[in-house]
Design goal:
globular; about 220 residues; alpha/beta; Rossmann fold; single chain; about 35% helix
Length: about 220
């Protein structure tokens, strides 16, 4: 089994759509895919969350969600506020291990790298499973600082960054976005391995699945 964690430089940078794009690209390459979202916030019982969106865009049905909390907060805070227990590192790692028969298991975090998913962060989980992390970054102003902080945290923890993906690349990028695309690898030491067109998450499955493999650098693979 190959495991790839997906985190973002912040919230709302396109992690779910990038996760779906990774899944679609792997499926197009003939691989089997599973997706885990340890903690989902801001979604009530029975409501569609991020995993439902990934299934809609890709057709992947092997998915695992361990906890969901109604308020749109960091998972540990949301759990405390609604009186639910927090996820533990060991049970979350075990849930990911249960997907070992898939060629690729994608694990989408919540917010950024150090957001508490329960009693642990995504960084803790990546360390425990000795798996790389893909960083989803914004295109515009602020992304250089956020991206460098995150890649430095990964490096300090001994966790490999599998690449940077711009989660929402505008149809008409401004000067900041164009410069950032050049400066990100220079400042972080990590290649930009893909970019997803803004609005792609609103596409239908056929269009999304057909286009997704082309959003990543030729020859790059989440499977290493």
């Amino acid at each position: 089994m190959s495991v790839l964690f997906i985190t973002g430089t912040s919230t709302e940078v396109g992690k779910t759509v990038v996760t779906a794009a990774l899944a679609a690209a792997a499926l197009a390459d003939g691989r089997t895919v599973a997706v885990c979202k340890p903690a989902q916030t801001g979604v009530g019982p029975g409501e569609p969350g991020d995993l439902a969106e990934i299934e809609r865009l890709t057709g992947v049905t092997r998915t695992v969600e361990l906890a969901r909390y109604p308020e749109p907060l960091a998972p540990d805070t949301a759990a405390r506020r609604c009186g639910q227990r927090q996820l533990t590192l060991s049970e979350t790692a075990a849930a990911i291990d249960s997907l070992a028969d898939a060629d690729l298991t994608l694990v989408e975090g919540a917010g950024g790298l150090l957001v508490r998913l329960g009693e642990f962060t995504l960084l803790d989980l990546a360390q425990k499973l000795d798996a790389p992390v893909l960083l989803v970054a914004a295109a515009g102003l602020g992304t250089l600082n956020h991206s460098e902080l995150t890649t430095r945290a990964l490096s300090s923890a001994g966790v490999r960054c599998a690449g940077l993906v711009i989660g929402s690349w505008p149809a008409e990028p401004d000067l900041a976005a164009e410069c950032n695309r050049t400066d990100l690898p220079r400042l972080t030491g990590v290649d930009v391995v893909g970019s997803v067109p803004a609005g792609a998450g609103r596409w239908d499955r056929d269009r999304f699945a057909a286009a997704a493999p082309g959003w990543f650098t030729p020859g790059w693979s989440p499977l290493g």
